[in-house]
Specification:
Number of helices: 12
Helix content: 10-25%
Largest sheet: 7 strands, parallel
Mean pLDDT: 81
Shape: globular
Structural class: alpha+beta
């Protein structure tokens, strides 16, 4: 693969999941009822919600008796969730969480079509990545099928007019919808959804105001054929663009659920999900489980916080639904990308995700990095497996992807398979594999969201972290291009702690040590002035999110050792400061902290 000199470099300002002002939409909740849809109990609840609680219904999913409400003015989400969960008719109530895309820094470089085509002629190789995933053997592997498999790209939209998608006829077209007549011809609840749906604007206009979705879709189509040449062919797959992320790459759980249901109810059998968040949602869990019952494959990006998803889950990648395949990002040389989340039991497979070349709006191409880029290589491969074996269900697709891969020793302990995607091996195996007509039974077991204020016990932390600054590690491929991650200034929401403020559970000790905090895909460095077994305290200029999880690497007082501990950001009303409360830290870590404090002076 040829790496081009940059025509231009863009540093996109992102809102990573963990530095949003808060992690859910103010004034909105999602409620699931215990009774059947249309039952007297359901009608009674809905009537009470409208009249007594003055909640406004925004969306409903009748099949699951699930509802999306706007709250009355002045009522907090925490209050509403607590009250609703106490209602005997309610199975669960939860906030409408924010979710965000999982690329690393947006676009690195942008190139014109002519530059890309010239490079393709010169190299005769695969331009998307330098990793050998065997795509070229797949390009001419089969003819265009009568029924093309549909891949839903649930993302920021798609530039439908980009010549790569237009000339290959790759965009899904709703066969039962008449364009522009203002009528819901197919009765699916969406008017003029000719090529998909925009859940942000509630229209059929797929405008990609971020570029992320167009980049993801190009990676998928690039498994089907060489999109970098002038000799484009008719695509063997269809891409269904479903926009739920806005121009900043941020969306809501309610719109993600709508997009997922739309996808499978309109024929998508592979869903690409290059987005996520750290808050567990039972409603989103149900939506993902629904895709399993429909025989689809759910491809999910593992996340870009360099964290272990076994310990700190990333959703939807961490849902235990059998058709979910969680993807780690690898370099051209098959090492884990420095930013990528991992998980020896919860992340399944590695896939290229560093400096990936793909389509961007306005007939251009660009490079980007992230598990956002790693996931669509897998989704595109699965789509070609469906071309080879149209009746194959999502669970079997996942099983083959996890058995027909390239073993990589450096991924041992990082992913379940200890391997990286091999498109060639997976598609070849799918051709001759006997089709399994059924899938294992799955019983959904609801988790809970630990981020709500009611579950944040103990108030703020017990020390002070000062002078936090960014310490973003540069990364790159050949050419060692350094990309600086710029973060916008965000407004921090102060949540009141419900714990007693006049009682301290752990004694504080003075300590002078450095600390490194990993949050939202970035690293910040600072110093600690005090510490306890309860945690440490951070200043409010640290760009941290109340309720979010961070990983802290803390040096011992003498600098001789360093421990890593996961904590949850909380607000201390007593100290008027943010803190990092150690979140179920291993006993071995707490023992080391206790050892450190034996010879330290107590703090006031």
């Amino acid at each position: 693969m040829i790496r081009l000199a940059a025509a231009s470099v863009f540093l996109n300002l992102l809102l990573p999941t963990m530095v949003l002002a808060q992690n859910y939409v103010p004034g909105e909740v999602i409620v699931r009822l215990k009774s059947d849809f249309g039952s007297p109990d359901s009608y009674a609840f809905l009537g009470k919600a409208a009249s007594d609680k003055q909640m406004q219904l925004k969306e409903q999913w009748g099949k699951f008796n699930m509802y999306h409400f706007a709250l009355q003015k002045g009522q907090t989400v925490e209050q509403a969730v607590q009250e609703l969960n106490a209602d005997p008719n309610v199975l669960y109530a939860e906030p409408n969480y924010y979710l965000s895309k999982t690329d690393q820094v947006g676009l690195h470089q942008v190139f014109s079509a002519s530059e890309i085509q010239a490079a393709a002629v010169a190299s005769q190789g695969y331009q998307a990545t330098g990793a050998d995933i065997g795509v070229q053997s797949v390009w001419s592997d089969s003819s265009v099928p009568d029924q093309k498999p549909i891949v839903a790209v649930i993302d920021t939209g798609l530039d439908l007019n980009h010549y790569v998608f237009r000339d290959t006829h790759a965009i899904w077209t709703n066969p039962n919808e008449i364009p522009g007549n203002g009528v819901d011809d197919d009765g699916n609840g969406y008017i003029d959804d000719v090529n998909g749906w925009n859940f942000v604007t509630n229209s059929g206009v797929m405008f990609d105001d971020d570029g992320h979705g167009t980049h993801v879709a190009g990676i998928i189509l690039g498994i089907d054929q060489n999109i970098y040449t002038t000799e484009l062919q008719e695509s063997r797959i269809q891409i269904m663009p479903l926009k739920f992320l806005n121009g900043n790459g941020v969306g809501t759980t309610s719109n993600a659920i709508r997009a997922i249901y739309y996808a499978v109810n309109n024929g998508a059998t592979v869903l690409n999900n290059s987005w996520g968040g750290n808050s567990y949602s039972a409603a989103l869990h149900e939506a993902v489980a629904y895709t399993y019952t429909k025989g689809a494959l759910f491809v999910a990006a593992a996340g870009n916080s360099a964290m272990n998803n076994d310990a700190v889950p990333m959703y939807p990648a961490s849902y235990d639904v059998p058709n979910v395949i969680s993807i780690l990002a690898t370099t051209d040389y098959d090492y884990k990308a420095s930013f990528s989340n991992y998980g020896p039991t919860s992340v399944h497979l590695g896939s290229p995700g560093v400096y990936i070349l793909s389509t961007v709006p306005n007939d251009a191409f660009g490079t980007s990095s992230g598990t956002s880029m790693a996931a669509p290589f897998v989704a595109g491969t699965a789509a070609l497996m469906k071309v080879a074996s149209p009746e194959m269900l999502g669970y079997q697709l996942k099983s083959i992807l996890m058995s027909q891969y390239a073993p990589v020793s450096q991924l041992a302990g990082q992913v379940v398979t200890s391997g990286r995607l091999s498109s060639a091996a997976a598609v070849s195996f799918a051709k001759t594999a006997a089709v399994e007509s059924s899938q294992p039974a799955y019983t959904l077991s609801y988790g809970r969201d630990p981020d709500l204020a009611a579950n944040i016990a103990g108030g703020g932390g017990c020390g002070t972290v000062r002078a936090l600054t960014d310490s973003q590690t540069p990364f790159g491929t050949a050419g060692a291009v350094v990309i600086l991650l710029l973060l916008p200034i965000v407004v921090l929401l102060i949540m009141r702690s419900r714990a007693p403020v006049n009682r301290r559970k752990h004694e504080r000790f003075k300590i002078h040590s450095d600390v490194r905090i990993h949050v939202g895909g970035r690293e910040m460095i600072g110093s600690i002035s005090s510490i306890s077994l309860g945690g440490v305290q951070v200043n409010t200029s640290a760009l941290l999110q109340d309720g979010g999880l961070v990983t802290m690497a803390i040096a011992s007082p003498d600098g001789g050792e360093r421990i890593e501990v996961t904590g949850r950001i909380v607000w201390s009303e007593a100290n008027k400061a943010y803190g990092v409360a150690f979140n179920q830290a291993p006993q071995s870590v707490l023992t080391r902290i206790a050892d450190w404090t034996r010879n330290l002076q107590k703090a006031s």
